Amino acid sequence: MATVLATEHPEDTAYGQVGDATVPLRFSSLAEEYRVLRNRAAVLDLGGHGLIQITGADGVDFAQRVLARDVEYLTSDRCMMSLVLDESGQVVDQVLAFGREDGLLLESSCGAGTRLLEHLLARVADDDVQITDRSGDLTVIGLEGPYAWGVVGRLIDAELASLPFESVVDTAWDDVEIVFARTGLTGEYGYQMIVPIESAAALWRRSLEHAQAAGVEALELAMLEVRQPIPRHEVTPGASVIEIGANWLVDITKDDFVGKDAVVEAFEAGGGRRTVGFTGCPGVPALGTRVQAAGQDIGEVVYAVHSVGLDATLGLARVTEDLAAAGLELTVGGLPVTTLTSPYVVPKSWSIPII
């Protein structure tokens, strides 16, 4: 399904199917959009992210059970990222959870809304819990970049630009009620606006007066460069939360949540494989390309692209635990690579204050 803003995109926009969504991969060129995101401000059509509301007298308790992080006291002025797991500890999705007065609003990763909705509905028992797909009446527009804060000031209110990370405000744009959040996926200043679909096109057009559109390719490249998890590329069958490197999105001190037993078992067992970044080989290796150390097979490539920021191949490999360290010389498909520590590219926002 195309995003609600598809009619606003340029005619030569390049689209791709990601899960249940048809999303804009590029509006112009990857290199141009990447440089805008890393050096100025980019506006993002995040309509491929599903929005699911959890309400009812037992809604918060239900969310506490299905989310791997603690959301019991997530107030309406806060949001947080969390994994959603199945009973075997496998990742269903990575969500952004917004506290709401009447429950929670979950934002899925790109193209995962249908899968997330089905997972939640299957786990509602006889409790007073309502699961509502809000993707038909709400959509998400993002802003990312070292000067995205300036766009916020010109669009809505300069005071919103300096909100603490993961803060949420119910505000208005052009007399339309929206949910505004300080988020960030790329290490740059980042914001999200959840807006009624009937007002989305007008907000998109107004945003383009102050920022340039960037597609999913530029966004995901920038996410990879700061090791922000991208579920559709990194979640592979059988891989544990620890192997993926997303254990920071799980709170094993919670009394209980779906998949906890499997996660605790993986933590206690140790060993297994880990995910590490690499660069160096010419060309972009295919997924599954074997990784070797001193001629011994130690793992495989799970994700690789050409990084505009590094002007080199950048990838993730899942390798044996003792070799998931930075500064090692390995081979990928017989070609030399060097492992890295994140961030692989230092965001410009880390040295630019909000004025």
Automatic annotation (TrEMBL):
Protein name listed in UniProt: Aminomethyltransferase
Record InterPro entries: GcvT/YgfZ/DmdA, GcvT/YgfZ_C, GCVT_N, TrmE/GcvT-like
Taxonomic source organism: Planobispora siamensis
PANTHER family assigned to the protein according to its UniProt record, in alphabetical order: AMINOMETHYLTRANSFERASE (PTHR43757), AMINOMETHYLTRANSFERASE, MITOCHONDRIAL (PTHR43757:SF2)
Taxonomic lineage of the native organism: Bacteria, Bacillati, Actinomycetota, Actinomycetes, Streptosporangiales
Residue ranges of domain GCVT N-terminal in the record: 15-254
Gene this chain is encoded by: gcvT_2
Domain of life: Bacteria
